[in-house]
Automatic annotation (TrEMBL):
Gene3D superfamilies: Homeodomain-like (1.10.10.60). It comes from Puniceicoccus vermicola. Keywords: Cytoplasm, DNA-binding, Transcription, Transcription regulation. Residues 174-272 form the HTH araC/xylS-type domain. SMART domains: HTH_ARAC. GO terms for molecular function: DNA-binding transcription factor activity; sequence-specific DNA binding. It holds the Pfam family HTH_18. InterPro entries: AraC_XylS_family_regulators, Homeodomain-like_sf, HTH-like, HTH_AraC, Tscrpt_reg_AraC-type_HTH. This is Helix-turn-helix domain-containing protein.
Amino acid sequence: MPAQRDPDHIRIFPETLWSRSAVGNRSGELTPLYVDRFRGPRRSTASDPHDYWEITAVLGGEGRLESTESRPLKPWDVCLVPPGLAHREASEGIMDTIWLGFRSPRLDKRTPQAKVLATIHSRSLAEEIERFWIFSKQSGGAIGPELDAHCSLLLSRFHRLLQDGTRPDSSLVQRLLRHMEKHFAEPIEVGSLAQEYGCSTGYLYRLFRQKTGYSPQAWLTRLRLNHAIQLLQHSDLPITEIAPTVGYRDPLYFSRIFRRSTGESPSGYRRNHRTPG
């Protein structure tokens, strides 16, 4: 493990890494500014933006990345922080992270108003970022063009994993949907699930609504009532038993929710829509 370092004094790559190479210039598409590593607690209260992109890879320990919301950080989490977003890391214990700062006119044009964090969970990518850090420290000579190429590959892989589902937004929603389908008759605490998934409750609520058009509670209600409708149409179970079967301990409350959604009471719905058997 590296020794603890001051995260406020990061070594910027010297221009000679490029000027002395055969290429002679930095890439106009994407070029790294620094890569550094820090192992220790994070207790700074400062939350400042910067005018470049930054990748944060967590190699050990746990903490939080705080910006407009607070996101848990665990080993193998990789975050992309956009320019202009005030943020800070926080941890009471030792957290081992690598920061890779870079400029990318190409990415600036694609996401000119980016003000949100993107996060994936990938041990292989975090370890590749560690290898990039090792290469930058141990290699001598005019390695600037190699740093450009390697940094570009890391960013491309980050975006591919984000889209493919290592831990992208769509995967979080799918996990919650599967949990609801399996446990719809039980109490479901979205806050506890968000903590398990490694995101904030507010973020999961917003993401779920964005992907489905419903809040988690509204979706759960639809799911429960759909199961209730199946039982009303295809079984002889009394309503007092159907209610707890689909997640409502109080049959009167279940009846109110059912009427509000369908315009009919459960008994009326059974009478009007019963499937002949």
